[in-house]
Every structure is written in C-alpha cells, then in structure tokens.
Amino acid sequence: MERYRVRSKAALMMSLAALLLLNAEVAAGGTIIHESATLGPTGQTYGWGLGETQFLGSRFSTDQQVNITAVGGHLVEGTAGNLFGAIIRLTGPGGVPQGSPFSGSEVVASTVFDPCSSSTDFRAPLTATLEPGNYALVFGTGRLGSTGGAGAMPWQGQSNLPGASYIIWNSSDWYDTNPDPPPRFVVEGTYGYCQASGTSCAYEYISSVQVGEINNPTACDYYSDYTHLSATMQTGTGYLVTVSNGAPLAQNQCGIWVDWNADQDFEDANEPISVNGTPGQGPYTAIISPPPDASLGDTRMRIRIMFTGDVLPCGDTRGEVEDYTITVTEAAIRGDLVTPAGVDFRDFAVLARQWMKTPGIPSADIAPPGGDGVVDWLDLDAQVDNWLAGLAQ
C-alpha cells in the first residue's frame, strides 16, 4: 500500500483558511457513529496514499437507522485538486464493493472536499439516512465529482479501535487490508427518525391538527417538532385525526405515519395511516388505531401536507411536516368509553350520539378492532358483549 508525502507551505496556508470555513459549517456535528482508529499527532505531512488508483475504506455496521451529518478522519492533502468521500453499501460485515470500483446503486451518498496540507482531524458535511446494515466509508479521487487531487491518511501514533476493518482499491480490484499503524476514519450523525421538511410556505401547509388531547392550530414553519404534545391511545381503539390545510389546492396530498413498534422509522406494514380526502383541499381525516402488538409508551406520529408526487415520511417536499407524540396504553374493555370504569348506560349514550356518523371523541367506533370509520351495528354488538363488564365498585 502506497504512502504519500504532501506539498508546500503556501498551499498549507490556503488550505488552513478553507478548513476554518468548513469547520464553521460542521461545528454542530453529531454523535460519532463510526471511528476506526485513535487520533495521532496532527500536523503530519504524509501517510497512506489516496489517489486515482488507490482508494482506502473502513467498514462499519449499524443495527438501527442513523442520519449521517459528516464524514472524515485524519487526512492531509497532497497535490492540488480534491478528494471524494463516499458511503458504500456492502452485502455483509466483511464485504467489499461489487462494482469496479463501485456501482451507482452501491453509493448511498458522497461528497467532495479539499483537506489541509498539514494533517487535521478533518470533517466534510454529508447528509444521508442509513438503514440497518453494512457499509464502508471510502476516500479517493478521480470519481464522484472529484478531480486531480491526491492525499493521504496519516498513521503515526495511531492504533485500531475495536472492530476496525479496512479495504483497499488498488487499480483493478478490492482487497482486505490491515494497515499498521492504521488510518483514522470517522462517521458522524444522529440516531433517530429520518429528516423531513417542507421547502415552501407559499402554498399548502398544515394549519391545524386535532386528535385526542391534541388541538394545535399553527402557522407554516416548514418542519415543526411538536413531540411535547401527546395524544393517549389504547390498543385496539380507533381515534379520529383531522388535519387542516392552510392554503389548499386541489392537487394537495396528506400523509400520516405512526411508529407503532417504536423502532424510529415509519416503514413497517401498518405504520402508514390511510387518509381520507387526499388528494384534495382538505380537511383530511383518518382513524388511528394502535394495533394489539404496538409498543406501549411514547412513540412518534408524523404528518405531511405536500403538493403532487409520492407521499413519503422522509425527505423534503413543497409543503410542511409536523411531528407529534402518541402515548400507547393497554386496551381497556371494548365499549368502556367514559369514566367511571365499566360498560354502562353512559357509554351507550356516547355510542347513540355517534350512531351512523363519523366517530367523535371519545370514539365509539370499536368494531372491528381498530374501527372502520363509522359507528354502526358492529360497534353496538361489541358494546353489548361487554355490557356491565368492569363496572367500578
């Protein structure tokens, strides 16, 4: 594996200025998701070479969704030009890219950067959402928009951290490598829900959300975190949610998602909620019903109003996104709609007021489990089955 020594003091000063600007951009940073080696002394001018025919990579895995904010490591620039940093999807923890050197479908995200001519623990901004799986952070040049550069990854005074695993592209193929002393790769990000936002408030946006204890009229703010507002829901019971559009157009769409298993994504089969009135001007309505196997406690509900296109819980679109909290509790006796505990005439009165109508709050739409959007004979039958059950003593 080639080593590389870098260039002049003048270039060093120019790169230092660029580095100060870059560091200002990424100062917020995030949690270190992956770190291959300890950091040796900075200010080094040579290390394991990065060029058009030699790329270095560090493998890592994640068992949960992670939102990447920056990549980097102990880096130093060589000749004028720039380098690329790419996150490559691998087939397994010991895999290598399948392309030559990699295919477009393997590249999750990439960035182009120009490190300093005297080594620093460098970071370049990069935005990506990684699903659980296996990946490699790869540095090189001559690909993915980088041109004419060369650089190195210093190694003096560094040692591997647990789980470190490296790969190298050497002109024509990928190989496992065990550089000694090792280069330092770093991936930063945050664990949690994928990023989502609106890009314009001139047209459609969320003007109010009503569900359970939540009644929240709002102005447009692209994305708003209202997770301090919570609606309590019992498993197997349906709850009406109403979303209003502040600047409606006929083409507008509304999407609602609830993370029932609290795994910090909205990708499971029952997590997209069926919404009535979309596409259209709204208001949009839906019945939200925690499934029997929903995780108890707090979880997230995401709501999006947008223009045309695929309605997805992640990414940026015209419109607005708001997040709320759903607090899931164990199912009570079906038909026990109001306090005190137990199914009696007070609960029947609630059902009677909602007869053959869209469910209200509390919802008498208790059958089938989760409701069907209307209060009818199915709900009466379920209430009769539990008549006088659980009455408070």
Question: What does this protein look like?
Answer:
By secondary structure, this protein is mainly beta. The protein folds into three domains: 3-191, Sandwich (Jelly Rolls); 196-329, Immunoglobulin-like; 335-393, Orthogonal Bundle (Type 1 dockerin domain), CATH 1.10.1330. The chain has three helices and 24 strands. The strands form five sheets. Strands 1, 2, 3, 5, 8, 10 and 13 form a seven-stranded antiparallel sheet that branches. Strands 7-6-9-4-11-12 form a six-stranded antiparallel sheet, with no helix packed on it. It has a five-stranded mixed sheet with strand order 17-24-22-19-20, with no helix packed on it. The chain starts with a strand and ends in an 8-residue tail after the last helix. Residues 5-29 have low confidence and may be disordered.
Summarize the structure.
With 393 residues, the protein is mainly beta. The chain folds into three domains: 3-191, Jelly Rolls; 196-329, Immunoglobulin-like (Sandwich), CATH 2.60.40; 335-393, Type 1 dockerin domain. It is 9% helix and 40% strand.
